[in-house]
Design brief:
This protein has helices at about 15-20, 50-60, 65-70, 70-85, 95-110, 130, 145-155, 175-180, 180-185, 215-230, and strands spanning about 25-30, 35, 115-120, 125, 140, 145, 160, 165-170, 190, 195-200, 205. The strands form four sheets. Strands 2-1-7-8-9 form a five-stranded mixed sheet, covered by helices on one side. The chain is about 40% helix and about 15% strand.
């Protein structure tokens, strides 16, 4: 599927250094191709609404959490949330509900694994062996770095980079087909390794597509885009867009 080029995305390419420090970041292209800013369009005014506080509750456990809950209890909570998100309507943006459901399913895989460290005596929890990502504590310009890694690498979202103008980070394999219209508009696509859950090993593992599995279509589109972008001015490239229908 080629994503519809939504020029509304341009405002997230912040080039002013002062604005960079003031703006919260967190804009993603959802699996269906629509844009969603986790912070700016949160239905709840505080703490980024329905998604980020929930994510941090399960991925950044403090000493009180470790002393009060067991990992089995938290897993049961996550399973209950999955059922609720599939069957109930919430007074939130549907995109928020969808993203939270995807995170719940990801977290269920993490919490059911026997590989992560739950050290009750030393009050330490370490997910890094399961999630395939080193422990990341810091936020960067308001964006939770670990949340971004998980959404892009394991949940099929694409991150719009606000600190790099016209840039998108993805783990998709068919970048020329998916982002054809964005590349036409001079977007740089940064590809990072995908993470897939290995049920037997109970861990997320990196998966990179071998070169021999790249389709002829993908190679043809790459050559086609290079030819258009090298010979047609940016302002005249709309006529070459492949997707004409915006998904609401």
């Amino acid at each position: 599927m080629t994503l519809y080029y939504d020029d509304y995305i341009e405002q997230y390419g912040i080039q002013d250094e002062i604005l960079k420090q003031c703006w919260g970041d967190g804009t993603y292209i959802m699996p269906n191709g629509t844009l969603f800013d986790v912070e700016r369009y949160a239905s709840v005014a505080h703490a980024s609404g329905f998604v980020i506080p929930f994510f941090r509750n399960y991925m950044y456990l403090d000493k009180e959490d470790i002393n009060f809950y067991t990992k089995e209890e938290l897993l049961e909570f996550l399973i209950s949330w999955e059922k609720a998100l599939l069957t109930r309507k919430y007074d939130v943006n549907p995109k928020e509900q969808k993203m939270r459901l995807d995170l719940v399913r990801y977290l269920i895989n993490v919490y059911k694994s026997s590989k992560f460290i739950w050290d009750y005596e030393n009050e330490v929890v370490d997910f890094s062996q399961v999630i395939g990502i080193p422990n990341i504590e810091e936020n960067w310009f308001g964006r939770d770095v670990l949340l971004k890694e998980i959404l892009v690498r394991a949940c099929n979202y694409d991150a719009v980079e606000s600190t790099l103008f016209r840039s998108i980070t993805t783990s998709k394999f068919n970048i020329y087909e998916t982002f054809y219209d964005y590349i036409l508009h001079d977007y740089k696509i940064y590809k990072i390794p995908k993470l897939i859950f290995n049920e037997k090993k109970e861990v997320y593992e990196e998966y990179s597509q071998p070169d021999y599995l790249i389709s002829d279509k993908e190679l043809r589109l790459k050559v086609e885009l290079e030819a258009i972008c090298s010979s047609i001015p940016l302002e005249e490239r709309d006529q070459y867009c492949r997707s004409k229908v915006k998904i609401s």
